[in-house]
Amino acid sequence: MSDPGKAKRVTTHTLQEMKAEGIPIAMLTAYDFSLARLVDAAGVDVILVGDSASNVMAGHETTLPITLDQMIYHASSVVRGVQRALVVVDLPFGTYQGNTKGALNSAIRIMKESGAHAVKLEGGREVLGSIQRILSAGIPVMGHLGLTPQSIYKFGTYVVRAREQEEADRLRADAKLLEEAGCFALVLEKIPADLAREVAQSVDIPVIGIGAGGGVDGQVLVLHDMLGINHEFNPRFLRRYADLHGTITDAVGRYIEDVRSHEFPNTDEQY
Ligand code: KIV
Fold first, then answer.
1. Which ligand 1 atom is at minimum distance from the Cα of 52?
2. Residue 169 has pLDDT above 60, yes or no
3. Which CA distances in Å does 232 have to 140, 223, 235?
């Protein structure tokens, strides 16, 4: 029985209705219980347990090292904090490419062991077999085209993708293929805004952009970037909504000062 006090859950269908009604979709990443709970309560529609956890949680230079077990750990922590948002989990590098059975097993492990609602994976035609096999098990799949960070060593750089005609045409065709295969939504990362708008208009599934302009159906940012926890990552597409780097540094500095000066704890803060 549903609890009348609880917000209605966002589903893949909700997102498709939002696109049809022209309501922009707000998506953010989260990797742990406490921040997922805050982000969910604030009303975000989709929480992505991104493999960007490899960068922002584990300090790796790329998203490649994170493992399936680590993604499941992050995802299950997030799921425990979420009441309303759709929780989507990235399939990490090496768990779905070139092996459809392996892809299905990875997706099943994520769904079974974390309780998440969908998976995301990077790529177009080259991973279509994996996408079809995962979908055949009833697991919703979100696609991801454009700058796909798991292929950074192929690209060699994090610059904007699909500026050239050939790559843009391939991306247009891949978006159609992913829609026809049954993906419920698509992320477009760091591509020209005009191309992203055209793709969003050419498919019926929601297109969520990051560095892809305002002509798409929704936006996603990495939570730690938009909260300003780090100062080193400054791409043009990033808008910082807080300066947690400053807030945390200041709070920790004041705590250290109070400990050193015997200001903390005071008589009210002891038993
Ligand atoms: O891993 C991630 O955070 C992502 C987003 C950048 C879309 O894939």
1. 1
2. yes
3. 34, 14, 10
